[in-house]
Write a structure and sequence with these properties.
CATH architecture of the largest domain: Alpha-Beta Barrel
Oligomer: single chain
Shape: globular
Strand order of the largest sheet: 2-3-4-5-6-7
Number of helices: 18
CATH class of the largest domain: Alpha Beta
Radius of gyration: 22 Å
Length: 476
């Protein structure tokens, strides 16, 4: 066995952690060769924090989910400055998408973050999808392919690595992989025609990383989730599609795989399948060492070839090396701010039916506020704040899912819904409100149902700028 086997095992791990300050155990692990980590909103990420990590391991791959729209880690308290992928797909201007990607890359460059776990290259072929939805550029392969390339070019043009996810495609699912194992019921021919083209396009554009999806795809492997499948990770992604960059798992504590195996077993199986980096969304010193020791034990037992572990570690280090070589691009990006691009995109994406003009403070009723697990629970929809800035005295009432509408008075009423197309009870709630107040205004921040109310606005995403665009239209 090579003397640095433990260091190789540490190199392929990318843990997250609890709290807003860098824990001592994580700093020690970085000094011992930990190859990377992932930041969440709970960590209060920023340049000062990242520099603590860099002081222990300058080459650490510091990753984050900064998709824009509903999934933001840097702007979770205010809402994102970017409207999200679905909105960009609705506008369908690849130059605008690249500008958005470049500006997101600039934010990450300023914080010295190596890798953005974005974009979602999933084709949202199933409108009932509970976890992708507006995180996808849209429902067709061509649209998603074009905008995936534009987003990748934007982020990587700012000197930050992008990561296309969730291979081989999470768009045609009705199960959230945070909660259980989704199954993609599609033939290999349909996968090749619908789900794989955005990943082919991203690879052609030079994307530095791809994230596996915790998905059972029987046409590719009837027994193992894609993350743990050599036929998917190595034979398909490496062999047929020709990807040679860093392949990272989705978070391994997600129930799709965590219900099947222990964290150490998941890591060993994923590495054996061809994955290079193991994302552990929430870790402790003990759990990190348990995963490391499981990988070492697998090599020592001959279950996992040391050459495969060394190859994986090499790809992690190669991504780190690429980032180091992009310093000039990052300097240029940080000096070339495009601060208004997110609002430009949100305004362009807004689709409206009917008319309305608010001249006094309304009652804003948020009809459903429970979002999927990929979205930080403190993310605001932002509609009330945006209207309140223009019409002081605006009041918000938050309904619990399937709850009752509040009593209406003589104030204008704005219903804020999300993904009405997916929720019959939301559509029924809107219908009840319209019967009581035909002049009600409906704002859908997700995948919309048929227009209802005197005015119906669709932002196609949850973000600060999407809310501002809607508020501007309502008070114009």
């Amino acid at each position: 066995m090579s003397p640095d086997l433990y260091r190789l095992a540490m190199t392929v791990l990318q843990p997250g952690y609890e709290g807003a300050s860098a824990p001592d155990w994580l700093l020690r692990a970085l000094g011992e060769g930990l190859g990377g980590l992932v930041l969440f909103a709970r960590n209060d990420p920023g340049e000062q924090l990242v520099q603590r990590f860099r002081a222990e391991n300058p080459g650490a791959v510091v990753a984050i989910d900064e998709e824009g729209g509903a999934v933001t880690r840097l702007e979770v308290t205010s809402g994102s400055s970017f409207p999200g992928n679905r909105a960009l797909g609705v506008v369908d201007d690849v130059a605008l998408t690249e500008r958005v990607g470049r500006q997101i890359g600039r934010m990450l460059a300023e914080a010295d973050i190596t890798l953005n776990y974005a974009p979602s290259a999933d084709v949202n072929a199933n409108p009932a999808n509970p976890v992708i939805g507006v995180r996808s550029f849209g429902p067709t392969a061509d649209l998603v392919s074009r905008h995936t390339v534009a987003y990748v070019n934007g982020v990587q043009g700012a000197g930050v690595a992008a990561c296309a996810k969730h291979f081989p495609g999470h768009g045609d699912t009705v199960t959230d992989s945070h909660l259980a194992l989704p199954t993609v019921h599609a033939s290999r021919e349909l996968l090749a025609e619908r789900d794989l083209p955005p990943f082919r396009a991203a690879i052609g554009a030079g994307v530095r990383s791809i994230m596996s999806g915790h998905l059972l795809v029987p046409a590719l492997d009837p027994s193992m989730p894609a993350t743990l499948s050599r036929s998917v990770m190595t034979e398909l992604l490496r062999g047929e599609l020709g990807f040679d960059g860093m392949l990272v798992t989705d978070a391994i504590e997600m129930r799709a795989v965590a219900a099947m195996f222990s964290p150490g077993e998941i890591a060993v199986r994923a590495l054996g399948a061809g994955v290079d980096a193991i994302c552990v969304g929430l870790s402790t010193e003990r759990s990190l060492h348990e995963i490391r020791d499981a990988v070492v034990a697998a090599v020592q037992a001959g279950v996992l070839p040391e050459e495969r572990l060394a190859e994986a570690a090499g790809r992690v280090l190669a991504l780190s090396g690429w980032y180091d070589r992009q310093s000039a691009l990052r300097e240029k990006a940080c000096a070339d701010v495009d601060g208004g691009v997110g609002l430009d995109a949100a305004r362009a994406a807004l689709t409206t039916t009917g008319t309305a003009s608010l001249t006094r403070a309304p009652l804003v009723v948020e009809v459903n506020t429970r979002l999927n697990k990929a979205v930080d629970p403190s993310t605001p929809t932002g509609i009330t704040a945006a209207l309140g800035a223009l019409l002081p005295g605006t009041e918000r009432v938050q309904m619990e899912p399937e709850g009752e509408l509040p009593p209406f008075d003589d104030r204008p009423v704005v219903l804020v819904v999300h993904d009405a197309a997916r929720h019959p009870w939301v559509r029924e709630t809107v219908a009840r409100a319209v019967r009581v107040r035909p002049e009600v205004i409906v704002v859908d921040t997700g995948i919309p149902a048929a227009p209802a109310g005197a005015a119906h606005l669709v932002t196609h995403g949850i973000s600060r700028v999407s809310a501002q665009a809607a508020a501007e239209w309502l008070t114009r």
